[in-house]
Design a protein that fits this description.
This protein is of the alpha/beta class. It has one domain: Rossmann fold (3-Layer(aba) Sandwich). Helix content is 41%, strand content 14%. The chain is built from nine helices and seven strands. The chain has helices spanning 22-33, 48-54, 72-86, 117-145, 156-159, 169-174, 182-201, 224-233, 246-253, and strands at residues 13-17, 37-42, 62-66, 91-94, 148-153, 207-214, 264-267. It has a seven-stranded parallel sheet with strand order 3-2-1-4-5-6-7, with helices on both faces. Helix 3 runs parallel beside helix 4. It is globular and about 60 Å long. The N and C termini lie far apart (46 Å). Bound molecules: nicotinamide-adenine-dinucleotide. Nicotinamide-adenine-dinucleotide (NAD) binds next to helix 1 and helix 4.
């Protein structure tokens, strides 16, 4: 008798929001490699040549839908088009998110007291409301069929407050203090109890809801001081590479995690361990 691979994703239909970004694209490539059909819901979709370059191995296993996750009708239209093509998805990865990079201008990285209300609203709109709407529309369709796995993407900055000292070098360099903004942290934090809420709400309906917590990913655009300070604080002494959350995403998406719901899977190089 052949043993069934609990991590198998063959022909699973997986929606990834923000699947054209740094981490989402890695999830997509990993899922495609494992035989899944991946539907990328992204606010903007580049032209065909760029898509080919970013998804060279896809061969009919990836489809792109122009969806703004802050707009319920846009999500519903994306889902309707997807259902016609591949049917109701088995997995939803709520990955799209807005963050403020260390290179952000002072208007959005200054003192808490001056943080612009419109930016607060914009970040909450994408990170929280967008996730809420995708769960309503796509999770709702999965619940009607009595099956599905939802993977929300959190952040260590949604579990703990940022270590602001990491960014202190910027003041010496630019004369302006950089404060890692509150909106990202608060919006990501909300996802943890949202995950638990939905996990219990859909607990007997066959839809599992978990959250994956990544830490910072190395990007070429980050300056050397930021990377050095971040790595200094990190128990493993380095930032994550962009594909290092793939294993956790496969685990949460597949039957390997079939008895797991309402949980937080932390993949953070040890950041939250002290
Ligand atoms: N990169 C990191 O260091 C890091 C660390 C911890 C957590 N995270 C989380 O991981 C997730 C992915 O991060 P990333 O760095 O790959 O992000 P990214 O900025 O590279 O990509 C985000 C994607 O989301 C899309 N998007 C934004 N708003 C949208 C909307 N309204 N509708 C549809 N699509 C929209 C963007 O177009 C982009 O393709 C985010 O939720 C982020 O908060 C990232």
């Amino acid at each position: 008798m052949t043993r069934q691979d609990v991590f198998d994703l063959t022909d699973r239909v997986i929606v990834i929001t923000g699947g054209l970004g740094q981490i989402g694209r890695q999830f997509a490539l990993e899922f495609i490699e494992r035989g899944a059909k991946v539907a990328i819901f992204n606010r903007s979709i580049p032209d065909e040549a760029i898509l080919q370059e970013r998804f060279p191995v896809a061969s009919g296993r990836v489809a792109f839908f122009k969806v703004d996750i802050t707009n319920k009708s846009s999500i519903a239209a994306g889902l309707a088009a997807l259902v016609t093509r591949w049917g109701v998805p088995h997995v939803l990865v709520n990955n799209a998110g807005l963050d403020t990079q260390p290179s952000a201008p002072p208007e959005v990285s200054g003192p808490f007291e001056d943080f612009p209300e419109e930016v607060w609203r914009e970040v909450l709109e994408v990170n929280m409301t967008g996730t809420f709407l995708c769960c309503q529309v796509i999770g709702g369709a999965m619940a009607k069929l009595g099956r599905g796995s939802i993977v929300n993407v959190g952040s260590i900055y949604g579990m703990l407050s940022p270590v602001q000292d990491i960014y202190a070098y910027k003041e010496a360099k630019t004369g302006k203090a950089f404060v890692k903004p509150v909106a990202y942290c608060a919006s990501k934090s909300g996802l943890y109890n949202f995950t638990r809420y939905l996990a219990t709400y859909w607990g007997r309906k066959g839809v599992r809801v978990n959250i994956l917590t990544p830490s910072g990913v190395r990007r070429d655009s980050q300056d050397a001081e930021f990377q050095a300070n971040y790595c200094q604080r990190m128990p493993m002494g380095r930032m994550a590479e962009e594909d290092e959350f793939n294993g956790a995403a496969v685990f949460l998406a597949s039957d390997a995690s079939r008895y797991m719901t309402g949980s937080n899977l932390v993949v953070d190089g040890g950041w939250t361990a002290w």
